[in-house]
Structure formats: C-alpha cells, structure tokens
Amino acid sequence: MTEDTGVLIKKKRAALRTAVTKYIQQLEKELKKNESDDDEVEELLEHLSEKFESLKVVDRECETLYKPAEIDKELEVAEQYWDKIITWRFRAKKHLRKSNKLNSNCESGTATEIAKLTETIKVPKINIPKFYGEINQWLSFWNSFKTAIHDNSSLNSIDKFTYLKGLLCSTALATVEGFAITAENYAKAVEILKVIWEKRRDYKFPYAEIVECYSFKTLK
To answer: What predicted TM-score, i.e. pTM, was given to this entire model?
Structure first.
C-alpha cells in the first residue's frame, strides 16, 4: 500500500467517524424530546447503520497502516466508536419498539414470552441479573443463567434462547439481537457470547476485534 493510499484511507475513516458522531448527536437530541419523531429516529438509525458498515471496512484497512507502538491506542479508539454506535443503535431500536415500529424488545416482547413460559415450566427460583455487557459482570451472569436455565432439562433450546434474550441488554443484546430463536442459533449464540466476554475478560481483547472474527449473518 502506497503512502498516498494510506493517507486517503485515514481521511475516509476520519470522515466516517465525523458522520457517526453527527448521527449519534442527532439521535440523542431526538430521543430526549418528550415526543420524538419516530420517522426521524428510524432514518437516523438507518444512516448510522450504513456508516457503521463502512467504518468496519475502513477500520480493517487501517490496521495495516499502524506502527507497532500505535496498535493498542488505535484499536482502543476504534472500539470506543464501535461501542458508541452499538449503544445508540440499541437505544434507537428500543425506542422504536416501544412505539410499535419494531416487533419486540428487551423489556416487553421477550419479557411477555418469558412470562408465558413461567406459567407452564418450573424454573428454579434464582435472581438472574440482566447483563449489559460489562466485562466484570459476565461470570456472575453466566453462572446464574447456567444454573437456572442452561442446565435445566425441563427447558428446550428455544425456551432457553427466549430467556437468554430477555436477560441481555445494550451491547450484549446487540450481539445476538438479530438471531432467529431456534435451537441451532441458541447453541451458537451462547458460544459467541462466551468467546466475546471471556476473551475480553481473560485476555483484554477489544470488543470490535473479537466481533469481527465471526460472521453473524450465517446465524440469522
């Protein structure tokens, strides 16, 4: 890669990051209103998602340009942008779901399904905290979920996946949010969640770097 090409790639990344920041600020402003314009939120979400896809490509291209001493800092900055995008996409989707623009969400649709399940299935009485993606909370969450749900022989995989989605929020939910609730996808979703948060905890790998190791499209 020539020096001029490297400069162009970095300029493209800077422009994308500026656009991402602009859309996030507009989303934040819109969502703070007492009566948000759902169409505006939906449009901003679409723009943000498109920029996210472009930014992921450019971030990968930029990795070949880093000097050894720059790698950690550059990956940290990239992760911060990815985390912001994922967080605000989640908030926008949650708002639209509450406005019946989307089908289900962490607090209502999945919760309703869980309520129906608990009427017919005996689940151990254990207080499972919701998991928002904090690294230091993963082990506690997984141990509780494993005891009450994952190892519960009276639940099938589809039921377990329903419970799992109902207990995930923010970046954790965004990781598996688009997966159809099937037995096959439950096993894959659990594997991905464990890899992402256990590697981040044990080896301090950036979230963005780990997520890019998986093709989530094949799991939908």
So the answer is: 0.49
